[in-house]
Amino acid sequence: MIELAPDQLPPLARWFAAGSPGTAALAEHVPAAGTGRWWADRAHAPRTLAVACAGHVLLRGDPSALAPDALAVFDAHYVQAPSRFLPALGSAFDRIVPWERMLYVHQVPVAAPCPPRGVTVRRLVPADAPALAALAPDTAWLHASWGGPAGLAASGLGWAAFGADEVLAVACTYFHGTTYEDIACYTAPAHRRRRLALACVTALCQDIAGRGHTPSWTCSRDNRPSRLLAWTAGFRLTQEYVHYLTGKPARRDGGGTSGRPGRPAAAAARGDTPAPQR
């Protein structure tokens, strides 16, 4: 695969359905936010196209056009692709791990809970970038789709619960589409079970509805806290699907194996650990 510059992209309507919920919204998010990267099997009249952002990849097109190691650039990524890409993924990596996912869409309006005394829930502003950066290192996934804390803070698409100058919880648009906004949220471990995430998510959902968009929510099937929060915040399940966590690029010298199925280890991305609510 070769990387494409934005001015080299083919018409995207042929490749990605407009107005899609969930992770599929990243195809619209990347050009709008200026984050992420585009890849194709060739620059002129590509037969396979990929868009990658924040450790997630969408693959479309004809996998028969790919060389055996063409997808190796997407190691340690979550890949969402039609099943016809599975042989190509299997040949590119030492293992691919199927990960069951659940897609929710916001359907039931929910009243925002009152924050505890001393806590303020408000929209993030550019000056909040240092407070976001001060969160634990394992929360970098939270703002990865915006290129970092400054990008998220400046986007106008995040809400946070603050105690003094400290961020206690955050909810934000993760992938911003033309119809759906797929959201993410996080609560600092010491401040869980205080309904702070629910307060942030509710405020964000009202904000998204005010833009004429619909919030969506994706999480692992095994992430029960995330599923419970989604339901409480008014989201309802609309689809179940599978994406694939890729391993290391497969060795081509006869010393390795390719495409072995595996069971997921603790994943560090977006809601597949107990800490993030994604």
TrEMBL record:
Domain N-acetyltransferase: 119-251
Low complexity: bias regions: 260-278
SUPFAM superfamilies: Acyl-CoA N-acyltransferases (Nat)
Domain of life: Bacteria
Listed GO MF terms: acyltransferase activity, transferring groups other than amino-acyl groups
Region feature (Disordered): 248-278
Gene3D superfamilies: 3.40.630.30
Protein name as annotated: GNAT family N-acetyltransferase
Source organism per UniProt: Streptomyces platensis
